[in-house]
Write a structure and sequence with these properties.
Blueprint: H1 2-41, H2 45-57, H3 61-70, H4 73-82, H5 99-105, H6 112-124, E1 129-138, H7 140-153, E2 157-162, H8 169-183, E3 187-193, H9 205-210, E4 214-218, E5 238-241, E6 245-249, E7 267-268, E8 270-275, H10 278-294, E9 320-327, H11 336-347, E10 351-355, H12 363-374, E11 378-384, H13 390-399, H14 401-404, E12 409-413, E13 417-418, E14 422-425, E15 429-433, H15 439-444, E16 447-453, H16 455-470, E17 473-475, H17 477-481, H18 485-496
Parallel strand pairs: 2-3, 3-4, 7-13, 10-11, 11-12
Antiparallel strand pairs: 1-8, 1-9, 2-5, 5-6, 6-8, 9-16, 10-14, 12-17, 14-15, 15-16
Length: 501
């Protein structure tokens, strides 16, 4: 017994002597690994320096803070979720314009718009396709009846992907239309985001299922309430009918967007009807997302449920050149949409017009806007006067000085809240879709946008934005500077969270 006590006493004495050294070595190892991770993965030098400084100046705490807040788990999670996913592409050789057509519709080789087309082609690895007819739909009052009519006229397949699908009067009208389609023998698939499906309770998933609709939720969550700042959301809005008619833009399925229904919280929005080869690119994205969420392959191989029903039609029906741009946190190039925006701003020679409900651009995009304005380009940015997400509105106000100071024009549109997402360059190039000008759309969520080269359509949309500006209030640098100290402090604190809003 005395021997055992002596051994224990000697071990304890050695541990008392050694533990500070073991602790110091452990802290040194942890700090070294955390610093190395920051140096190798962070692209922003200021962010890297900040994290490395915190790691070494606050031992243990700094490394723990970096592990929790500094590691980009969003992209890692997205890559893990969609690793090995089937990629679906359609052969579109017959719809790709030749050099003469590109010269006529876009411009000669190496001119600004042609350079923009080359850039977007390299970013997306998808072709610019000709023969499209694209029609703007001004709000739910215009879009919903058109979408419902297309559903009722479907002859083979209907695919809907949406962020929000509310269980309300408008949602129930769509459920009834899908049920009628199923009764006619149409293949119907509905994909709703896991968060967006919970904006109303009970969820629309129940009524859809009862109607016989095959419905899936994209990354469903166990949280019973919606959270508008969640990550890895499928924010895309796609409706594809028979592989020949498509609808996309910013419009969700909810009563608030159907203004003639006199909703309590009205929302103005813009959607687009597309016909022609571009619909094949909408279908590619929908079928990939559906395969990920459901495990069912609709097209692309022998396991396809019914490849004929989900085959696109590539007939030319119009004169617009268009290309789909899908982006998400699983992209090999996570900055692809930011590069499109910066490239478009660098291309501009005369005018840039932007409408966005959520405007929180980072420094690179702000600088691109400023450079365009300082080159003499007229830059008009139209934002909602009253934002439906107050934190976003406050944070947006806190950064407006960056674009106002260099000559950009900012216009605040009156109620109802305007959810339109639209960009026009030189009355010749158009970008529309689900993406906003914020980090959530550019890095954290799955989005789909369309670029279009069509001067007639661009002039029509220019006229529309001119009408919005005519009823909007101009926001000046003096207005921003005139905010009270408490308001500026509130807005500044909100801006600190802009990467997560």
């Amino acid at each position: 017994m005395n021997g055992m006590n002596g051994l224990f006493s000697a071990t304890w004495q050695w541990w008392v002597i050694l533990w500070p050294h073991v602790l110091a070595a452990s802290v040194l190892t942890i700090n070294t690994f955390a610093s190395a991770h920051a140096i190798l993965t962070k692209r922003d030098n200021r962010s890297t320096i900040g994290w490395v400084g915190l790691i070494w100046l606050s031992p243990v705490f700094g490394a723990v803070a970096y592990a929790i807040l500094g590691v980009n788990r969003i992209r890692s999670r997205a890559n893990q979720l969609r690793a090995g996913q089937l990629r679906i592409t359609h052969e579109m050789f017959g719809a790709i314009p030749d050099e003469k057509r590109l010269c006529d519709a876009v411009g000669p080789d190496r001119t600004p718009l042609r350079s923009l087309g080359v850039l977007v082609g390299r970013i997306t690895d998808r072709p610019l396709v000709d023969g499209n007819a694209i029609e703007p739909l001004y709000g739910g009052d215009d879009a919903y009846p058109r979408m419902l009519a297309a559903i009722d006229a479907a002859t083979s397949s209907i695919g809907l992907s949406t962020y929000i699908f509310d269980n309300d009067p408008t949602g129930k009208i769509f459920v009834a239309a899908f049920q009628r389609a199923i009764q006619r023998g149409i293949d119907v698939r509905v994909l709703v985001d896991g968060i967006g499906s919970s904006y109303t309770y009970p969820s629309i998933v129940g009524p859809l299922t009862q109607a016989g609709v095959r419905v899936e939720r994209f990354l469903p969550t166990s949280v019973p309430i919606y959270f508008p700042y969640a990550n890895l959301r499928n924010h895309r809005k796609l409706l594809i009918i028979d592989g020949s008619i498509g609808f996309t833009g910013g419009l969700n399925i909810r009563d608030g967007c159907w203004l003639s229904h006199h909703p309590r919280y009205p929302v103005r929005d813009m959607h687009f009807q597309l016909r022609g080869p571009i619909v094949a690119q909408l279908l590619e994205v929908f079928t990939e997302d559906w395969a990920f969420a459901s495990g069912e392959v609709l097209v692309g191989n022998e396991a396809a449920t019914d490849g004929v029903r989900w085959t696109p039609r590539l007939d030319a029906v119009g004169h617009s050149l268009a290309r789909g741009i899908h982006c998400g946190p699983d992209d090999p190039d996570i900055g692809r949409m930011k590069r499109v925006l910066v490239g478009a701003l660098a291309t501009a020679q005369q005018s840039v017009r932007i409408m966005s409900p959520y405007f929180l651009p980072d420094d690179a995009i702000c600088q691109a806007l400023d450079v365009a304005a300082m080159r003499g380009v007229t830059v008009d940015i139209v934002l909602p006067e009253h934002n439906n997400l107050e934190l976003v509105g406050w944070a947006s106000t806190a950064m407006l000085w960056q674009v106002l100071d260099c000559g950009c024009n900012v216009w605040m549109s009156p109620l109802p809240f305007d959810h339109t997402k639209l960009m026009i360059v030189d009355s010749a190039w158009i970008l529309f879709g689900s993406g906003n000008w914020d980090d959530r759309s550019l890095r954290l969520n799955f989005e789909f946008n369309v670029e279009v080269y069509d001067r007639n359509l661009a002039r029509t949309l220019d006229d529309y934005i001119t009408g919005v500006i005519a009823r909007s209030r101009r926001k000046t640098l003096a207005d921003v500077d005139a905010r009270s100290l408490l308001v500026r402090l509130r807005d500044g604190i909100a801006r600190l969270f802009s990467p997560y809003l």
